[in-house]
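Box 3.1 A note on notation
Throughout this textbook, protein chains are presented in two layers. The first layer is the amino acid sequence; the second is a token string describing backbone geometry. Keep the layers aligned when reading.
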Amino acid sequence: MKKKTVQKFLQTPACKYGRIWNYLIPILLTAAVAIFTYYRQTFTLLRQEEIGLFLNTPDYYRTISMNPLPVSHIIGGFIVQFFGIHPLGTILFTTGISAAYLISLGIMKKIGAPLEVICTALACTVWWFTARASSPATGTAIILISALFLALMTLLKRGGTKKRVRIWDTAAAAVLIAATTIMLSRDRDIKEVEKWSKIEFAAVHRNWDYLLKYATPSESLKDVEVVPWALLAHNVKGELKDEFGRWPVTEEFGLDYGTNLSYRSALFGAVLYRELGVWNESIHQTFQSGSYLPHCTSFRTLRMLIEENYAAGDSLMVVKYCDVLEKSTLHKNYIKHYREHPCVHRDSDRFIENGSAPHIVFTKNQMDTMLQLGRAGIESPMAMERYFFYYQLRSGITDDEISERSEYHQ
């Protein structure tokens, strides 16, 4: 008797389909978002944290209030702090897309059309726009508006409908998830943002070998802007002399950004002069890079300003930027390190005190700039290697020709 009862129960639709099919699409959607984000957008999320900002200050809230949908920007700014903790960013991003699906399902039930394909289409739309956005504010705004709409329908006591299992509906939703994943994986903008996120992250954190995995000579033929970063990496490694002739460079652009003004060129200048040991110019370029961002600064900008002022021995500025960064949520230990290990404050750089020292004037003539470093007492093999590279570009001669001339004179 018991055996027949069990067999009869297993044949019921609730057991055959309800427990499996009711959760299949949410599981597939969550898995697809998590896997794609982890393997294709990890550094994109890290970069969102680096160029994002959240400060618990009246000035920050006052600035945000001037934007459309300020609540979503505040919540998005708060969430973006956690994107810097790998893989917590992936978990938070995936949770947002799953929430969009569940909210859509609730709305569809309220209007009497609990179709998974419609809920999945809405969730995939949120996924598409959020994956291509520069911050979580876009996805946050969509989810908040949808949740508000569902709450209003609930307050109005609109009748709900149970979700009935339809195989064609589930199959269509699964196809939609697969199609969205394929489209996102082929999206050129997503690939570009991830590539540059890796290059910038590697440069700021001095991981030059990792940078060179993505800034290659073949990649430079498609995107010439990778050239300055790749040559900088080779310069730091002492390999710049071996790279002449392998890259599409000119005297005006290639070894640096020339007269190009952008966030990327300013960040490049900050990293370059940091590696050259010219801290004042590195600080200046870091500050300039922040001016291109929505809040005129960011978490990465503030961290770099602290580190570079610390290296320059400007303890007052270190304290100033630590006080600013302290208003965020996740920088307590970071700030604690600099407060427990203060730098030795250097003397003032007034003109009268340093009148006998040569002044470094950064001009368009980068060869002259490299020579000025030596005259200022900044001994840098990197600077001399760059000077020689500029000399080769200006003279139009190769390493072999230089060797032949040296042998001739000998």
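Residues 362 and 406 are 31 Å apart (CA to CA). Residues 191-409 form one domain.
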